[in-house]
Write the structure tokens for this entry.
Amino acid sequence: MSWEHFEHGSDIGVRGIGRTVEEAFEQAAIALMAVVADVSLIGHSEKVEVRCDAPDLELLLVSWLNAVIYEMAVRKMLFSRFKVAMSGCSLSAVLFGESADPERHHAAVEAKGATVTALRVARDPGGQWVAQCVIDV
Amino acid sequence: MDPSSLSRHSDFEWWIDPAGKMRVPAIIYAGEDLIRGMDEKVREQLTNVATLPGIQRAAYAMPDAHWGYGFPIGGVAAFDPNEGGIISAGGVGFDISCGVRTMRTTLTMEELQRSKTELAEALFHGVPAGIGSTGAIHLDEHGMDEMLRGGAQWAVERGYGRPEDLDCIEEKGRAPGSKPECVSREAKKRQAHEMGTLGSGNHYLEVQRVAQIFDAAAADAFGLKQDAIVVTIHCGSRGLGHQVGTDYLKSMVVEGYRPIPDRELACAPIHSELGEHYLGAMRAATNCALANRQIITHLVRGAFGRVTPQVSLTLLYDVSHNTCKIERHAVNGETRELFVHRKGATRSFGPGNPDLPPGLREVGQPVLIGGTMGTESYVLVGTQESERLSFSSACHGAGRAMSRTQATKLWQGRKLVEELQERGILIRTRSYRGVAEEAPGAYKDVNAVAEAAEHAKLARRVVRLVPLICVKG
């Protein structure tokens, strides 16, 4: 499993890759956090639970990343670990992180929202799950 | 984009002629070099916009157009609700009513040089910026709804700024038709502590010098003299606007207008429950942005007051560049009420427009174009021709030339801050990585964009501004 960023004209794309769709979603969330700050600098002492659902897997990815963005925004937190469980197009997850600290985290940019641009959730020919979309920052 | 693939109508006007499902042509205003540097996605997105129902005249791209969300950034499209016209969350953008506000100051260059560091510190500490920052105003549910209805007028009534500021804001600082009840609880919660915050990314607060005058008469009408000092704010509707964009994009994807060529072009008929709810929420978010810039104006005045108490700041103008507004425009010789989407595009009303306040009505609307912390910004003036050319619209900024990831590989934030300081530009930030991502070299040449807007007759250059102090989120 891994994550990466991909190019978008003014913003940035996030891509999570995993053996299962859950892993791909977890990795996509790490890629999202890496847009905001260096994930290795973020602790994991506090946990937050979220739930979301959507009509299909791709929109579920958007809802999931938007749920992470929302928790970041209202709790003023950053996250470094994610545990996702899925049942069809419903998702429940635990986010592990800590309060945002400008002195320590040097957060570069806040994420405004996950978009449906370059949105894709699918298995690649090698059997790996890929979950990606563009984040408006 | 290959210019030879477009139909050239002039050196600065390029057409994609209607084909397939396009209802109208797509028109790009830019010089040949800008066209060559433009993402192929602009063609794809603009062509898709041209297929939407109720679109009038053409789908337009401004000289700074680049790949956006459904609509290109730098895209303009107007829809007639009586012809099945739609409204699109992507056509407005996530940061609803993001915009630019410029204030004149009575500060001289000599006075500024004497107190530059102190002023930079006062602005940095006086205006909350960056991730996790909160403002001094905390709104409960009732207060939030009042703000969402009142916009900058709400802010002025509470002592943030002066009544005369409102004359120099689009729609006098308050978008009518706001429906706070159409804004989700999540969006309001996201905003509860964010009033009067600048945000991050490409948002900024700059103290700038008038470095060059192109149009002396317009500059005089705008009260801008050579070497005058101005302050410019670039920010938007903060968490509330972002959440409204998120909520309604999802609703439009799931239950919006069908068929559409791409789901990122999700939209709803203007005359539909979803369309009307989005309009009400979008206008509420617009008021949030206008209130936010008004509060920041007050904070900026406070910071100046502490350092240079003799200096006064008056508003030149406030323009939003992520909007959908009802405007009256001529189509086939008939004046109609249209819903004009401007995604990363600035309204550019020409002289005589009755919506402009006295003093600006004679000369035209200031068009504020943001640059980068190390280069320049522009004030242009709207033209009468822009009504015919682009529903009175012009560009909004330079647009990125490379991704944030690429920029952090090429520049180091701390070094960049030192280099800019040597050039007399003080940067204040909480994130060096943020500075690297926003490096001047990561953006396209704003000079070329402003020049193209003038050659295309969308707006005329009035003054060029260079940065002296920049507070980044």
In short: The domain at 3-401+443-472 of chain B is CATH 3.90.1860.10 (tRNA-splicing ligase RtcB). The radius of gyration of chain B is 21 Å.
